[in-house]
User: What shape does this take?
Amino acid sequence: MVTGRDRENSLFKSIDWICIIIYLLLLAAGWISVCGASYDYGQTDFFSFDSRSGKQLVWIGLAVVIGFVIMMLETKIFEMLAHVFYGAMLVLLAVTIVIAPDVKGSHSWLVLGPVSIQPAEFAKFATALAVAKYMNTFQNPELDWKTLARSALFVLTPMILIVLQNETGSALVYLAFFIMFYREGMPGSLLFCALSAVLYFVVGVRFREDMIFPGYSSGGGSALTSGGEFAVLLMIQIFVTAMVFVYTKAFNVFKILAGVGIGGTVLAILFSVFAIPYNVVWMQLILLLASIGIMLFYALRDRIVEYYYIVLFALGSAAFFYSSDYVLNNVMQPHQQARIRVVLGLEEDLSGAGYNVNQAKIAIGSGGLTGKGFLNGTQTKLKYVPEQDTDFIFCTVGEEEGFWGCSLVLVLYACLIIRLVIMAERQVDRFGRVYGYCVLSIFLFHLFINVGMVLGLTPVIGIPLPFFSYGGSSLWGFTILLFVFLKIDSGWSASKR
Amino acid sequence: MRRGSSYNLEKRKFVVIAMTLLIVIAYIMRLFFLQIMSDEYKQHADSNAFQNRVLYPTRGAISDRNGNVMVYNQPAYDVMVVMSEIENLDTLDLCNALNISKDFFVRRMAIIKDRNKNPGYSRYTQQIFLNQLSAEEFSAFHEKMFRFKGFYTQKRSIREYASGIGAHILGDVGEVSTANIEEDPYYQGGDYIGKLGVEKYYEKELRGTKGVEILLRDARGRIKGHYQNGRYDKRPVPGRNLTLGLDKDLQALGERLMEGKIGSIVAIEPSTGEVLCMVSAPSYDPRIMTGRQRGKNHRMLSADPRKPLLNRAIMGQYPPGSTFKTSQALTFLQEGIITPETSYSCSHGFYFKGLHVGCHGHASPLPLQPALGTSCNAYFCWGLYHMINNKHKYGRVQNAMTVWKDYMVSMGFGYKLGIDLAGEKRGLIPNAQFYDKAYKGSWNGLTIISISIGQGEVNLTPLQICNLCATIANRGYYITPHVVKKVEGQDLDPKYTEKHYTKVSRKNYEVVAGGMRRAVLGGTCTGARIPGIEVCGKTGTAQNRGHDHSVFMGFAPMNNPKIAVAVYVENGGFGADYGVPIGSLLIEKYINGKLSPASEAKAALFQSKRISYGDRQR
Assistant: This one.
């Protein structure tokens, strides 16, 4: 017989306390940052409900209550009700498109009297549960294409609905689920192809107009090579060479390709700089064709099928890059092009502050090793940094707590994510593991984009930093996401005892 | 996938962990570079960052139709304060230098720091301490400014009026309200915005676009130059100049003649719809609405029981009296109720079924043109009666009323004309539903007979009366009246060039114009006879609870009209008492460019005439 008291005891013991401690530390650090970011001179009371810090404290309190309630529920409930949650959330997302008021062009906030909530923040949790439940019905460790495609449909549906709400940033978060699919057996090459496509596009567009390799003698007047094109072709060359090494293990072919690709490129650059300036890209294309020829030769000679795939990858990469470049620059209208550049963060929105990212970098850069101290940041106080207590909250950490503070926060996130990997791997069934991977993938994606954006490394996509950014919806969304997993995990560790 | 391969998916967790570590390590390296290796960012922020200095554009000037500038800009200076930079301030010294009281200083500082009243407040940015110092006040303060750390001056421009006329048309500018700022983020506290008249209606054209200079400051607040050599600076775009259709001299004469009276004058150039003059009496001097006294003066004007701030030309809704008979004649002719030859008898009024509408003595019976000339009430009562009660043609009275109303609306009555000034009223043209409600469905032509002579429920603005006159001058169409003739570098709104044809044909307009000519030659407005100018006119005497209102509308020359004018003098008595002489003086002035000595004497006489109004709220 398990009495109520025993149950509580066993629950207390079976919770993953490491996770809880990291969670609480992040909450505390987040609140301090919100205090710093929303602080106005002359205001002394952080606990007043009139201030953002006071409100955030209330949201945090409610988040802890939500976490507690989740721990009190039966683990089974989540698996049982997964599809119900998911269906309800899809309806809510669809309804939101219609009834939500227009806030800066997006229709994503539901206004219920004094509070506004963003259903998209809770949809991640419902999607993770539903996809975990669906994938759990297949016990074979090797998932087939069909199952994978169907699981992807679970992810893409809410994603499309959120795009329709005009919240592209929140929708992109659903790409994080592909990390989980990768763990569950999606071929790594697929993930790699997708990542390289994004890389080609962003790099190609961003550096398209930057001309490089000016002639040495002409004093820099005749740079004829587009930086973007050069970088993309170099990437293709490197990827192809590396793939040959990884998939065929043919070291001699690898050496030949590296010599042709890298060596040829270096020579081509030197020729352009010191002899006759020309467009190095032409030489790169010739080198790429040469590499393909070499691979086809070895494919026919050694009858190794992997070469064909690599050739396909090389041709596909080049075709994708040039066709996307053509579509962007020749097919699209100028305003559509500008829109894409702004969405990618490649072009600053001139009607806005004009130098947001630069201001964010200045705020962080001015923090130095130890920071200026709590509430002493001038850059954030002067309101130079936009969205300083939501999407750009990391600026405040950078300015007031410095390098040490920032590093500590990043390490805490790393610990949380790695801890979640360990916990996900120890789940007995696929349901728990898939859900765990969903949770950690979402955290990883938010961390990658949000901090990267503030540091000027990733495109400016407005998504919050988990547990830091001001706002109830995102805080509760992340809390539910995390605590449901803690609850599922506690069931595992209880069963071990 | 990978069927039969020994590949272990669990190993993929290392890929995910590696990805996490890679991202975190890359970001820490980036932070190391930004925060420790590079000094550049630190210097930027250490220098107390940037100072955004707003560059104000000059507001567009306003001139009359002949190029005489009426409103222009004059430099003025604001005193700004940055709270975080105030050090060892000698308050008394500052108050003396600025000629303000210590009390005022304390109050002003409290208001600046109050976020409810000053939403954009920051300790680190410039806040307006005192605005619109004159050049003399400024130079006195500027000498001593080095003693007051944290205080700056900023050059602004304020509006200056060339003369005291045209207050209602020109309007004024004042500081933006909190509501303005919420509506349009372009504005910040302390900015100016058009509050009335053209300044308000053409705010967007006049204001231009603010520019900004992003300056770098060192730790002591000294300007170190432009951020990135001015890459992000924006030059201000000056506002556009406006040319009004107004004739400055005509306006001045109109305002002179309306002194001591309540009422309004509107004059329009019929061929273009441009407003040549628009007087609303009592008026005020627009020059009192600039500078620091604006608030006080504005309060004084709003408290005045005669409401000088009201632009009666477009906001006053009056019974048009007999001037309205022209519109009735046009309707009856077009509907075939009468012909120009139709005569109705009048024996000192309209008597029918116990109803009596009085009239003055004249020959009887009369055809249409003499009836217009003598302004016979009976003629138009009969006309309306025959129209509204014509069951054979319209069926029900309601249908007849609807036809009548459509004619009125086509002439620009009952709805706003759409002049480029804020606050225009629509007047009132009753329709069938209106009377069904008022008389519970039981009414006929007799019940509503007084609308035929411009009394009863009918209300027009002086602008609508003038537009009626311009339409007759044009023989059948009008162009929406407008005050602004030209916006520099921009086309005029197409709605101010479009011709609106009424439902009445040109032929019938000729008849009515002839009637109006007859009124001047030998009818009610013989006072409008001007040697050498063919004037057409129509008087009106609008009944009123108190003394009658004096109304006149007229245009000249009869063929190829240059001006259409409407005069409305509250409690002025017969149309011929005030309306006709004032109207004819304006016509003479505009067409001849000057007044004859005899007319000059007449003008002086009317300028000095006063009508007693009592203290009643108007």
Summary: The interface with chain A takes residues 1-3, 9-10, 12-13, 15-17, 19-21, 23-24, 26-28, 30-32, 34-36, 38, 40-42, 44-46, 48-50, 84, 113, 115, 122-125, 232 of chain B (CB under 8 Å). Chain B has two domains: 53-244, 248-608.
